[in-house]
Amino acid sequence: MPNLLDYDLDGLAAWFAGLEEKPFRARQVMRWMHREGCDDFGAMTDVARALRTKLKALAEIRAPVPLRDSLSADGTRKWLFDVGGANAVETVFIPEAGRGTLCVSTQAGCALECAFCATGGQGFNRNLGTAEIVGQLWLANRLLGPAGGRGGGEDNGRVISNVVMMGMGEPLANFDNVVAALRVMLDDHAYGLSRRRVTVSTSGIVPAIDRLREECPVALAVSLHAPDDALRDRLVPINRKYPLRDLMAACRRYLERAPRDFVTFEYVMLAGVNDSDAHARALVVLVRETPCKFNLIPFNPFPRSGFARPPVERVRRFASILSEAGIVATTRRTRGGDVAAACGQLAGQVQDRTRRASAVRPLPMMEVCS
Ligand code: SAH
Ligand code: SF4
Predict the structure, then answer these.
(1) Which letter does DSSP use for residue 60 in this model?
(2) Which terminus in the chain has less CB density within 10 A, N or C?
(3) Tens digit of each residue's pLDDT (9 = 90 or more) over 280-319
(4) Which of 124, 166, 170, 295 is the best mutation target for the ligand 2 pocket, counting ligand atoms within 8 Å of the beta carbon and taking the most?
(5) Residue 343 is a catalytic residue
(6) Is residue 343 in contact with ligand 1, taking CB distance under 6 Å?
(7) What is the CATH number of domain 65-339?
């Protein structure tokens, strides 16, 4: 039975056309589902009664089921969602003054095996469907209640004003489902979020960055983590396929169509690995022709990671080298650390279909020092 949370507006209109229903019916149902958070066709009062009965028989509105709901002392809230087959993914809500950000997952696990990431260490199970990606926003909106709570967006008066695809998984490795989910998030008949407030974070899958630019440009964050190929090959293995030169060129192409005029480079700070003055200076050279901002993320530890967070003073010095070169560099504050909701700590529950020998395979730190 089709789950209507799986469709963007065009998809829903096509499905309604199959029932010989007009496109405005799709818009009505879209509004009920996403603006009102309604999952009961019977309650859609402005939809003709006969159609409501037909919809009840032919379709469903089914969001992922929350298994656990944790609230951090700093207001960050984390949900664990069942995605079937003994797999669960995590979603995090981060309230801040003037905005509320939802960090959503796009895959159960991740196949890319970045050396410092808990999600990558647990292997890959499967892509999330559009309904499972949009469903995280659908349910968080419902659970957080109407506007007026903490946060509060400028453009739609809801608690969630921003969405970042920075949870579990590599969004651009699940391209079609992610793009359909993005379209729902942006659609005025659904969440009406601004393109500038929806961010896709990628480890750097170059052809998919180009496709995103063509099909659904939103704000782009790229996980850089190293200034040269030798180090990046080890930290972010996808770099062996798409090296820095190609990645930087893709970022510049993306900016021709992007809703923002800069790319955000995420840079996880790993003590003794990628955090020296020399690394910072090499970054300045690397990004010289690419309009960007840096977001430094002090490493968030998890068991057996094999990495450590640098001292605060080191992060500050690193940031100041970038700033002095005219690059805006912010340092991400750790949020939700007490409920393991910080970047890179999301592990959910994943049955690894790739059957790796061990769950977490950290690189020895000495090996990645340069
Ligand atoms: N797969 C995508 C998005 C999810 S990860 C990507 O890699 O961009 C979101 C961010 O958290 C990425 O920049 C990732 O490198 C970073 N991250 C992963 N593990 C981390 C950890 N242990 N501490 C801090 N940041 C981490
Ligand atoms: Fe996957 Fe991103 Fe983690 Fe790398 S950092 S393993 S791409 S989720």
Answers:
(1) B
(2) N
(3) 999 999 999 999 999 999 999 888 899 999 999 999 999 9
(4) 170
(5) yes
(6) yes
(7) 3.20.20.70
